[in-house]
Amino acid sequence: MTAPVNTDLTQLDAAELGRRLAAGETSSVELTRAYLDRIAAQDGVLGAYLHVDAEAALARADEVDAARAAGAELGPLAGLPVALKDVFVTEGVPTTSGSKILEGWRPPYDATVAARLKAAGTVLLGKTNMDEFAMGSSTENSAYRPTRNPWDPDRIPGGSSGGSSTAVAGGLAPWALGTDTGGSIRQPAAMTGLVGHKPTYGAVSRYGLIAFSSSLDQAGPMARTVLDAATLHEAIGGHDRCDSTSIDAPAPVLVTAVQEGARGELAGLRVGVVRELGGDGHTDGYDPGVLDRVRETVELLEGMGAEVREVSCPAFDLALPAYYLIAPSEASSNLARFEGMRFGLRVGDDGSHSLEEVMSLTREQGFGPEVKRRIVLGTYALSAGYYDAYYGQAQKVRTLITRDFTSAFDDVDVLVSPTSPTVAWPIGARVDDPLAMYAADLCTLPASLAGLPAISVPCGLSEGLPVGFQVMAPALADDRCYRVAAAVEAALDAARGSRFLDELTRRAAA
Amino acid sequence: MSDTLVDYDEILTRYEPVIGLETHVELGTASKMFCGCATTFGAEPNTQTCPVCLGLPGSLPVANAAAIEATIRIGLALGCRIASWCRFARKNYFYPDIPKGFQTSQYDEPLCTAGHLDVEVDGETHRVEIERVHLEEDTGKNLHVGGATGRIHGASHSLVDFNRAGIPLVEIVTRPIPGTGARAPEVARAYVSELRDIIQTLGASDVRMEQGSLRCDVNTSLAPVGSLEWGTRTETKNVNSLRSVERAVRYEMRRQAAVLDAAGRVLQETRHFHEDTGSTSPGRSKEEATDYRYFPEPDLVPVAPDAEWVEKLAAELPELPVARRARLQQEWGLSATEMAWLVNAGALGLVDATVAAGATPADARKWWLGELARRANDAGVELSGLAVTPRQVAELTRLVAEGTINDQLARQALDGVLAGEGDPAQVVAARGLAVMGESDELVAAVEAAIAGAPDVVAKVQGGKVQALGALVGAVMKATRGKADAATVRRMLEERVVGS
After folding, report:
1. What phi, psi does A223 have (nearest 5°)?
2. Where are the domains of chain B?
3. Nearest CA-CA partner of B497 in B449, B465, B451
4. Are B83 and B115 in contact (CB under 8 A)?
5. Do A245 and B299 touch (CB under 8 A)?
6. I want to staple A130 with a disulfide (CB 3.0 to 4.6 A). Which of A98, A186, B217, B338 is the partner?
7. Does residue A50 have a pLDDT over 90?
8. Do the bridges between strand A454-462 and strand B141-145 make them parallel or antiparallel, or are there none, so unpaired?
């Protein structure tokens, strides 16, 4: 471990902040105020948050400090601020999922993960920006405003959890929750130099997560370090009886895996490098710098005793089309409840329009173009006469992808690849080209479709921008992702002599 | 607009009916299908709701195990195959009473398939094949305000009550039922009646058609006699009583026959049944089928009933109505006709319960088919709707058998029970209805009668013994029916004849 270069609280990781809170070196109020000040100073430009309630956050922090002062038994997360992607419903706190159709809605209940973080004593700083209904890879599809990348304000922060990635990378929150349907945690984490993990499907409750694609959506942590990500994951994970797809198995022990990994204990670990994700013959669309960093990281693993081999997963080539049939199909149904009858926006309710017209006007004005594109695509794919050719066929591809994973995991313990084919691109560069936008998820889609855990950990810079290294593991073996990511992080930190994000802090200071 | 109708008896000379029934049964589970909300009927609107059954963003369903069990038991009682693995599906369409923009139902993987139900009409058994039994959720209820009769036309605004949204609903679908001929309306009625009895016996639902916990859609079509193809069917909704099931089929047969006679084409459409006129009117046309874009519900895990568990459920099914009828008919020594009366009067269960509470089968039948049937008829309610329990009826028969009261007093005691004055014994005590013993009061009444009618006494003593009846009547009148007539006669004989 290396010493932080900055004494600014907002540039520290959550583990260090937690230690200081427990030791009485700082208070939750001081900490919360530090983040709120930084949000006030910087979020006008960065646009990470859609909603911040400073008063509520400070009141909550004060409560936790008072409890600590009174000698209450507090958990390790007590008093630590956190940011939530605006896709999670929060009781009494505005929740929009990045859409105008939910503007002003205050949910009457908490998502399970929000309730768990609340029970752990965390302080909610606010709700972070996102692509509308999590549909996008750049956060430019937010109905409210784009979010900027702290590494370069002219670039996108990734998406759809771009508000969370910018908040954490920019020091506007120590850590945050995102959601990942096709890469929406991992890709923005990669673009902003964070650790982001998509848990095994069913490992973290989806109750209260506004659904985009039910069979793919997963909530997960975004953090400055692998240890922080594991800690946050442990706090939100585990069975939830409100989500019938939640896995009723003991939550994996992740922090221990991080500690083992950080010691570089990888001897005997079998690592498969996926050829179809940036390997020979599959480099079209990949930045050479990204491929270089990933190759160097694989060599680093080899140096720590891992056995590396190339693995072929041919069905991965079909992941993109399959994903863009399955996710929109489910979305077309999931978004049907937004019709202006019970909550959120209602347009045309002036006595001159029929029920159908009110529903139609509400959806016409309430949804943005990308959401409409996917609803139309999904509606078409599920239609009588097309179902078998599109949705049905995509489900078969999904099975093939799962089989590729299964046979690969017969021979290796983890699979690795770039997280994203490129580094963060300039804002606006892909908005008129949906297919180029969709291609940003090439590397993250296979694990999503198979429901497998996958993590992105920073592995260096290309063109001065962060590159993410993806580690995928079998279902419920999330601990392997964390172990390998921690090994990579520790080795790179040691070689660099500083934490990855310290580079960003240094640049800001310069 | 009134339809042209063909005389019923004439239809069968030219056409063969085919009927089919889709029956929806609200299960009597304590909580809803996909959330923990209560299912009590008649609660204040929107008081039995939560984020799940309101379809709020982020909410997720969790299937009710009790509802799955009840559906499997219904399937087993109908002789169905129970799926070893099946999924829920989303039926997508927009309407304000479906909060999610889709109804969670089952599509091509129903929980139960391929069963049958035998129903008897006029001594003839008709086998109704069951195509499927599946589980889904009920919708909310729209209330249209400002227009006539609560219909949407002319309404100024509409309200939605989501208390009903998400109540588990079992749909039982028959295969087309051909070959019923003139009895098609009765077969339809008998099927629904038998199905209702089975579900009641299983305790799966209170199956009250008037409250909508059992709802029927009746499909009817006619084809020319001898035709190899079936005709176009209509689906009649809003059929809310057994009698309406019969009337709806009868009406549709008569209407369709007229259309076909005029070389017209029967439209495939949904029609609404009108209780007041016994007629049907067109609803939305199904000529252009709605595309519901069914797909497997990704928010729910598949249902995979364990084979051993299903076997156990099958073994633990209660005695079903058909077996029970056969057993009771034998135990009570009734003819088939007598049994049919009991069943048709809706009295079988009540009589059985009354016998179980201690009455003789003859007494129980006498009361339920006699005095109680009369009162139900006068009050315009079903027998089961009377405010008297089988146990209370059994108590009445016991009081009569013991001689505490006679039949006339028993009817007065029943008045008290129906008026909510308590059990028969309590009413007898409170109203002072018990038969008089040979008390001073009775002796005085007898002697007063003798003293008051010397002419009658003379007639009796002159050999006209039957004239004694007038004296008995006088004593009964004086005691307001509380005396025992036989005792009175004996006392009079002792005093008039014997002296």
Report:
1. -150, 170
2. 8-310, 348-431, 440-496
3. B465
4. no
5. yes
6. A98
7. yes
8. unpaired
- Which sequence spans correspond to the domains of chain A? 9-317+398-509
Residues of A in contact with B54 (CB under 8 A): 342
Evaluate if residue B499 carries a pLDDT over 70: no
Enter the tokens of residue B411: 């009817």
CA–CA distance, A277 with A317 (Å, rounded to integer): 9
- In the residue annotation, A160 being an active-site residue is answered as yes
> Is the predicted pLDDT of residue A170 greater than 50, yes or no?
yes
Domain B440-496: assigned CATH number: 1.10.10
What is the DSSP pairing of strand B81-82 with strand B112-121? antiparallel
The CATH fold of domain A9-317+398-509: Amidase signature (AS) enzymes (3.90.1300)
What are the tens digits of pLDDT across the range B324-359? 888 988 888 888 888 888 887 888 889 999 999 888
- Please write the tens of the pLDDT for every residue from B361-370: 988 898 898 8
Tokens of B301: 């895990």
Q: What is the ipTM of this complex?
A: 0.93
Summarize pLDDT for B150-189 with one digit per residue, the tens.
566 677 788 999 999 999 999 999 999 988 888 999 999 9
Q: Return the DSSP state at A179.
A: E
E strands in B240-277:
269-274
* Phi, psi (deg, nearest 5) at residue B284: -75, 145
Answer whether A355 touches B (CB < 8 Å): yes
- The Cα–Cα gap between B100 and A276 comes to 39
- CA-closest candidate to residue B77, choices B327, B313, B346, B343: B313
Among this protein's residues, is A184 annotated catalytic?
A: yes
Phi, psi values for residue A34, rounded to 5°: -60, -45
Tell me the sheet residues that pair with A221.
Answer: A177
CA separation, residue A403 to residues A173, A245, A313, A408 (Å):
39, 21, 9, 8
Q: What angle do the packed helices B307-315 and B65-77 form, to 10 degrees?
A: 60
B436 interfacial to chain A (CB closer than 8 Å): no
